[in-house]
Amino acid sequence: MNDTDLPATHSLQSLLGALAVITREVAEHLETTSSGIGQELMKTGSCSSDVMVRLQDFDRMRQQLTAVGDVLEHCNSLILHAAPHNVDAIVASVSMRQMRHRIQAALDQGRPTAVAEPEIEQVF
Hints:
mainly alpha; 4 helices; 69% helix; elongated
């Protein structure tokens, strides 16, 4: 692929590419997390605070995948109706701040990149 084949920054095509990469990263994290929970339960035989933190990770990942799904659904609607689209407005509608910033960064750089893991929530 040469430079002329790359999608324009902030195009619908670049948004979909960024979302595809982010979705794969989240899926890999889900696999790692579920494996960790299984290992923890096998070691302890009970539900420790580490297991609770990992379970909270599942909820966070679900939220991320839901946000990606919402954006993809919006993009699909635009494509089906051949409506003019404003990628920045689509991204601004993402309710999860971390995902919105991650998508914006990927679009600004012209390619998706990994971001730091979110802070671990405290279990009470």
